[in-house]
Amino acid sequence: MKRILLIATGGTIASRPTAAGGLAPALTSAELLACVPELAEVCHIDALQLYNLDSTNIGPDQWIGMVHAVRDHYDAYDGFVITHGTDTMAYTAAALAYMIQRSAKPVVLTGSQKSIYNRDTDARNNLYRAVLYACHPAAWGVQLVFDGKVILGTRARKIRTKSFNAFSSIDYPDTAEFRDLRLVPFLPMPAGYGPVQFQDRLDPAVFVLRLVPGMRADIIPLLAGHCNALILESFGVGGLPGGDDGPLFAAVRDWCAAGRLAVFTTQVPHEGSDLAVYEVGRAAKALPGVLEAQDMTPEAAAVKLMWALGQAADRDEAARLFLTPVQFDLA
Ligand code: ASP
């Protein structure tokens, strides 16, 4: 029997109504396991209560805590299932994909839209399938299991706030899917995977600025001193209002001239950026320090930038790391 470690971090899956009327995480990892007793027939499973947080309150410190929890138990288990709130699960999935690289053992995130004790919950199905995936011989890497889909940690995005089919793999195939309880794998583990590499340095000083028509440029210099890199969520394949004559171009040029990175991404949900297409983008693309997220998800781009800044000694090294594909984050 495979040995699986369940690492509980909170989320709706573990929530109960509070006296004040809202939902908050309350159930322990042992209580979660007790709700799915059939897991005992699938594997030997131990439980670790790492946090009990709404995932709105999960960020870089907790990502590092999860990396350490997996690292410290890596040799003792065949796979890891992390229960987590859905709201920031895509950020955590991307963070773990960058911080736990080349893992032949699966590290699987799951959660639910309804608490596990609810009559109509999706929690038991998701937790059961997450463990089934973690035990499967075809399982590998950092993945998110939700509503029968297995999605790469670097490609997952929450696309619905309420329905059970809350997550999608953006611009890349699912790793696998469940047809009832049968797993159909699509993406095999890449050749030459392993040994696993754990990294636990991040620089969270990344700011995401969503462009809106009419936005003033003088917001950008205000961020200097607070942030080491800027992500500009631009329109379409990318560009700056005013082109290379405009104040936004001058602000980005000055931002980068001080040795910082500026990464262009897009507000469009699919197919990514390509700054070279239009005159409004070409001059920005040519600036030293300007990068493109291409088809990375917004979550992956933000977290990868934190990871790259945390690893690198200088801007060029951070840029190189950012543009190096990790677990199919760039097609
Ligand atoms: N607010 C919850 C959380 O992210 C939502 C959920 O888990 O579905 O922790």
Textual characterization of the structure:
With 331 residues, the chain is an alpha/beta fold. The protein is 27% helix and 24% strand. It has nine helices and 18 strands. The chain has helices spanning 29-34, 60-73, 89-99, 123-135, 219-223, 247-257, 279-285, 298-311, 315-323; strands spanning 3-10, 15-17, 23-25, 44-53, 79-83, 100-101, 107-110, 142-146, 149-152, 156-158, 167-169, 176-179, 182-185, 197-198, 206-210, 229-234, 261-266, 290-292. It has an eight-stranded mixed β-sheet, with helices on both faces. Strands 15-16-17-18 form a four-stranded parallel β-sheet, sandwiched between helices. α2 (60-73) crosses α3 (89-99), α3 (89-99) packs parallel to α8 and α8 runs antiparallel to α9. It is elongated. The two termini are 36 Å apart. Aspartic acid binds next to loops.
